[in-house]
Amino acid sequence: MNTGQIMLVLGAFAMLSILALSFNRTMYGSLQLGIEMEATLNALSIGQSMLDEIMSTNFDQKTLNKVAYGYSEITPPGNLGPETGETIAGIDSAYWSGGTFYDFESKSKFNDVDDYNLYRRKVFDPRMGYFEVFDSVKYVSEFHPDKDTASATYYKRIVVVVRHPSLPRARDTDTTSLPIVLRDISIYRQYF
Average pLDDT, whole number, for the chain? Predict the structure, then answer.
């Protein structure tokens, strides 16, 4: 082989290397995007299921068997959270043991919206692993549902935050993924 042929072979190898690197970068980007999309869809589904569970409960512990005609007849803002006997130790999780399925404790212990204040849950997905769920419940104003109030109202804002390491990041340089945040408002209608 002469010098010209060697130069052509080296040039071909260089082009092949560049093509292979470009192909690998594209495949990695597609794979990463696919995982982020799957994590996002799962997080949205888990968050919406959590909101549905919360919204299916009663507005307040004090309105389970009676109608509250004034703000003084419902739970004060400082007491939002589970009542005595409704607490869950640690992080709630559903699991299988010995062929028996044990569902989330919140489904059997919580009976009103504010029981979910500061509630934490781990949800297992066979492909993605564990998703972390964190809930908060605050009283809000009828006319400003985006602002917390220091007094009881007939409006409770529910915020569900779902975290997972595979959720998208704000920038490629960030090490922490962005959480999925869902919100809803539970409204008490005192006149039935």
Answer: 88
